[in-house]
Design a protein that fits this description.
CATH topology of the largest domain in chain A: Rossmann fold
Radius of gyration of chain A: 24 Å
Largest sheet of chain A: 5 strands, parallel
Mean pLDDT of chain B: 94
Largest interface: A-B, 45 and 52 residues
Number of helices of chain A: 15
Number of strands of chain A: 7
Helix content of chain A: 40-55%
Low-confidence stretches of chain A: none
Bound molecules: thiamine diphosphate, magnesium ion
Number of domains of chain A: 2
Oligomer: heterodimer
CATH class of the largest domain in chain A: Alpha Beta
Low-confidence stretches of chain B: 1-10
Structural class of chain B: alpha/beta
Shape of chain B: globular
CATH architecture of the largest domain in chain B: 3-Layer(aba) Sandwich
Number of strands of chain B: 14
CATH superfamily of the largest domain in chain A: Thiamin diphosphate (ThDP)-binding fold, Pyr/PP domains
CATH topology of the largest domain in chain B: Rossmann fold
Strand order of the largest sheet of chain A: 1-2-3-7-6
Mean pLDDT of chain A: 95
Order of helices and strands of chain B: EHEHEHEHHEHEHEEEEHEEHEHEHH
Strand order of the largest sheet of chain B: 3-2-4-5-7-6-12
Strand content of chain A: 5-15%
Order of helices and strands of chain A: HHEHHHHHEHEEEHEHEHHHHH
């Protein structure tokens, strides 16, 4: 039997034999976002996992702060910060096996570096020296996607292809709350469900699409409920509870890997910073709201638990602090160096072989650059002081 | 499944339709490479609304020739993911105007994935789109959408006009490591040529035009559905004393300046003929290229014979829209012949 034949055959049944094709009850999300930290379930959380999550979240917070600072110094063109969303970013990367694939959006560079991509390469798009700075095959991370939700069908196709090949690869695709209104979100979820593709869709509901709040985005009971319409399970989780996100995503990955088909996870979180450094969030939200969310900070929630369990002594704190400062210092140092640009690269990767038309344009640019270099050399020679010797 | 004939066997050229040659190309490509997957709407049991995928699901199974949900962006978007994983998807869009939902995937991802990733992630995928009018289709079934695709860097855009090219170009498109928009002239689907499926045309690289009819007086530059119109016009022009050369572009991107300009330099006059509208259409680009390269060889401005710049008309009026033999001959007549005498 082929992979697709396992979907079962559907034929319109003659009336009145109608019956629902799937029982919707098991697909429905919980009434409340799932939480672990601060509940009785926290006692069961593995100390090793808690420590790892803590180290990654603290480092991630520092990474976000450093990247935002680099925009002010003109070293990054723009940075969409994931401050406040570190639990989702980190967990999304940690739940995947090496052979799995991550499909990030522009906001997800923290997930990308947590998966092992070099931070400077992850920031290439936002620095502006190229579009994608890393080889997607090296860590199995798709390029950061800017057109909203367009990365979701890619994840479905890749996961489906892997399944056709008999590989037990899972794709985890990230999207924002605003992105769920896009047509590609719908098409991707529908495809995935029909093909039972091993995909986990992680929606980070951070409250806003730039300035537009969720209420203007959807009338659904929750974004997780959307899953039911496609015939896949929807899960609702507290996106600031790193342990809960890790658990829910791990379950979803396991479910997908075992052939159970796709899962939609809505992680309820909050974007503590503006949309990007170029945005002014005071135009559409008040400080009181932000302060409330600061009281439910993912790093604090985790630290409270580690402290309660006596898992965070001064040495551990220092080690994490040093690691984050080292990451920040490395970012500063490497991003303060000007990137080496070769304008000829513009023509190198449009097609496998440049078309005759592009070869002509390449020669035009080459001539322009040569003329520019000559003019610069002349200007320098003229600017040299009178009678200066070499 | 082999395509080679036993040595010494006589060739068996029989009349075959352009659609049959396309089917054969898909079948041979699928047999030759297990990475080739066909997906689209109704491509399975039905064999596609034009029957181009006829028999593929039966022969290769549903996993290789897949009926997808009705979602063009989803079809192309998942094909991108499949190509990322090493497959070679061949996507069928049901009609020209129904490819538009996939436009964002095409422009924002398909066309630029190689470029975005500095060559690390090329996308070898073929997007087959039946296009053009002349089949009596009601609205949204007859668009000539090539100008949109031509204007998108990163895509190859090819279109066959003969049975042999339908086979050769589709095999080449599927073999290409770049995305290819493969435009199938609907009204030529049922056109026939003597063609031997056991000795299919050699697969040429995409990007070469061909002189379909040699001539000395003027060059008709055309492609796809307008080729038969131009050949017919060239025959009719003999009565006027004009010996017209007809160039079939076959590929709009890459554009074969060499073949086109060599022809225009020989004849000194050129008319571009296509169904697509003239304003912002391919003819403007072609006329500009010819003028830039062959100015001193030209005896007259390059003229365009194109569809009208109107939304595609209802079937009962479409003959007024489509460039026909008379319009082509009128244009040839306006190529300033009087200056010669
Ligand atoms: C197709 C498309 N439309 C508009 C935009 C411009 N845009 C960039 S981010 C954004 C908001 C997205 O919000 P959401 O999906 O919630 O993600 P978040 O930024 O909150 O992470 C918009 C409108 C875009 N990138 N793509
Ligand atoms: Mg959002």
């Amino acid at each position: 039997m082929t992979v697709l034949e396992q979907r079962g055959t559907y034929r319109p049944a003659p009336p009145p034999a109608w019956q629902p094709r799937t029982d919707p009850a098991p697909l429905l999300p919980d009434a409340e976002p799932y939480r672990v930290l601060g509940t009785g379930a926290a006692d069961r959380a593995d100390p090793g996992l808690l420590r790892t999550l803590h180290a990654r979240l603290v480092t991630g917070r520092r990474y976000n702060a450093q990247a935002t600072a680099l925009t002010r110094q003109g070293r990054l063109a723009v940075y969409p910060s994931s401050t406040g969303q570190e639990a989702c970013e980190v967990a999304a990367a940690l739940v995947l096996a090496d052979r799995d694939w991550l499909f990030p959006s522009y906001r997800d560079t923290l997930a990308v570096i947590t998966r092992g991509v070099d931070p400077v390469q992850a920031l290439t798009l936002l620095r502006g020296d190229w579009h994608t700075g890393y080889d997607p095959y090296e860590h199995r991370v798709a390029p950061l996607s800017t057109p909203l939700a367009t990365q979701l069908p890619h994840a479905v196709g890749l996961a489906h292809a892997a399944r056709l090949r008999g590989d037990d690869v899972v794709a985890l695709a990230m999207v924002g709350d605003g992105g769920t209104s896009e047509g590609d979100f719908h098409e991707a979820l529908n495809f995935a469900a029909v093909q039972r593709a091993p995909v986990v869709f992680l929606v980070q509901n951070n409250g806003f699409a730039i300035s537009v709040p969720l209420a203007k985005q959807t009338a659904a009971p929750s974004l997780a409920h959307k899953a039911v319409g496609y015939g896949m399970p929807g899960r609702l989780v507290d996106g600031n509870d790193a342990v809960a996100v890790h658990e829910v995503l791990s379950d979803a990955v396991r479910h997908a890997r075992a052939g159970g088909g796709p899962v939609l996870v809505e992680a309820v979180t909050y974007r503590l910073e503006a949309h990007t450094n170029a945005d002014d969030a005071t135009r559409y939200r008040g400080d009181a709201e932000v302060e409330t969310w600061r009281g439910h900070d993912p790093v604090d929630l985790l630290e409270r638990e580690l402290t309660r369990r006596g898992l965070l002594d001064e040495d551990a704190r220092r080690a994490v602090r040093e690691e984050s400062e080292a990451l920040a210092a490395d970012l500063r140092a490497r991003l303060h160096e000007d990137p080496v640009l070769d304008p000829m690269d513009l023509f190198a990767h449009v097609y496998a072989e440049p078309t005759p038309h592009l070869r002509e344009q390449r020669e035009l640019l080459r001539a322009e650059l040569a003329a520019e270099a000559e003019a610069n050399a002349d200007a320098e020679a003229q600017a040299a002081p009178e009678g200066a010797t070499r | 499944m082999t395509t080679a004939t036993a040595a010494g066997a006589a060739t068996a050229a029989r009349p075959a339709t352009l659609a049959q040659a396309l089917t054969r190309a898909l079948r041979d490509a699928m047999a030759a490479d297990p990475a080739v997957h066909v997906l689209g709407e109704d491509v399975g049991a039905l064999g596609g609304v034009f029957r181009v995928t006829d028999g593929l699901a039966a022969e290769f199974g549903e996993d290789r020739c897949t009926d997808t949900p009705l979602a063009e962006a989803g079809i192309l978007g998942t094909a991108v993911g499949m190509a990322m994983y090493g497959l070679r998807p061949v996507v069928e869009m049901q009609f020209d105007a129904f490819a538009y939902p996939a436009f964002e995937q095409l422009v924002s991802h398909v066309a630029r994935m190689r470029n975005r990733t500095r060559g690390a992630m090329p996308l070898p995928l073929t997007i087959r789109i039946p296009y053009g009018g002349g089949i009596g289709g009601v609205e949204h079934h007859s668009d000539s959408s090539e100008a949109y695709y031509m204007a998108t860097p990163g895509l190859h855009v090819v279109t066959p006009a003969t049975v042999a090219d339908a086979y050769g170009l589709l095999r080449a498109a599927i073999a290409s490591d770049d995305p290819v928009v493969f435009l199938e002239p609907k009204r030529l689907y049922w056109s026939k040529d003597a063609w031997d499926p056991e000795e299919p045309t050699p697969v040429e690289p995409v990007g070469r035009a061909v002189v379909r009819r040699p001539g000395r007086s003027a060059t008709l530059v055309t492609y796809g559905p307008s080729l038969p119109v131009c050949l017919e016009a060239a025959e009719a022009a003999r009565a006027e004393g004009w010996d017209l050369e007809v160039v079939d572009l076959r590929s709009l991107v890459p554009f074969d300046d060499e073949t086109v300009c060599a022809s225009v330099r020989r004849t000194g006059r050129a008319v571009v003929v296509h169904e697509s509208g003239s304003f912002g259409g391919p003819g403007g680009e072609i006329a500009a290229r010819v003028t830039e390269r062959c100015f001193h060889h030209l005896e007259a401005p390059v003229l365009r014979v194109a569809g009208l710049d109107i939304p595609y008309p209802p079937p009962m009026l479409e003959r007024h829209h489509l460039p026909g033999v008379d319009r082509v001959l009128d244009a040839v007549g306006r190529l300033q012949w009087e200056a010669e005498s």
